[in-house]
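Field log, afternoon session.

UNIT: design team B
ACTIVITY: writing a sequence onto a fixed backbone
BACKBONE:
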């Protein structure tokens, strides 16, 4: 009888191995972090126009300042632009994750390229989301020869709360308006928003795996 017992034991082991392999085959991959980037571009040498007029510089709008000599010379002029995330493929997934009770914005990295005609410069310049405070100071890091172009990167989470940034994005319908002031030409900027998957996403994926196993075992 012992050979029969051994055979039954081996069959149970094989069945267990088959079950494990089936679980591996149908188990969905863990949800990956969602990361979206939007980039805006302009010229480092925009045209000079009368200072009482605003100037469109690619994706950037250089604001008028009648007290300045010109608009477009990188002196005493605000620059605004808007990051647009709604057309990106994973935008709805990102907003769903950020709206979950345990969803988390893990980073919001702003990169900005500027050209200043001040040395050292830029003097006392700032950048920020349009309606959020405080402003982020630009380092006084560019010197001779003049003009100098440099790129700076900041994680907005170092200056604003997660809820502030998520609410700001939602309030603008997926847009993210920005402002820079005021002694430099802004020629490029990007914003990368990253989030981790919520527990709800993991639960849904686990449920999908169990349902798939149940269908296969019928």
């Amino acid at each position: 009888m012992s050979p029969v017992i051994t055979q039954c034991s081996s069959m149970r082991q094989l069945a267990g191995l088959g079950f494990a392999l089936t679980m591996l085959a149908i188990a969905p991959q863990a949800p990956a972090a969602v990361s979206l980037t939007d980039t805006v571009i302009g010229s480092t040498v925009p045209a000079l126009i009368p200072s009482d007029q605003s100037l469109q510089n690619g994706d950037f709008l250089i604001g008028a300042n009648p007290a300045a000599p010109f608009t477009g010379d990188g002196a005493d002029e605000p620059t605004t632009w808007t990051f647009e995330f709604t057309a990106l493929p994973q935008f709805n997934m990102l907003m769903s994750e950020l709206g979950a009770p345990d969803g988390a914005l893990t980073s919001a990295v702003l990169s900005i390229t500027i050209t200043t005609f001040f040395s050292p410069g830029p003097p006392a310049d700032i950048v920020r989301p349009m309606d959020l405070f405080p402003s982020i100071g630009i380092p006084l890091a560019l010197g001779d020869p003049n003009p100098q172009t440099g790129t700076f990167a900041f994680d907005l989470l170092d200056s604003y709360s997660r809820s502030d940034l998520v609410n700001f994005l939602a309030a603008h319908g997926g847009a993210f308006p920005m402002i820079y002031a005021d002694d430099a030409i802004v020629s490029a900027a990007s914003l990368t928003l990253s989030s981790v998957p919520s527990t709800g996403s993991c639960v849904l994926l686990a449920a999908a795996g169990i349902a798939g196993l149940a269908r296969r075992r019928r």
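LOG NOTE: Residues 35-201 form one domain.
NEXT ACTIVITY: expression trials, pending approval
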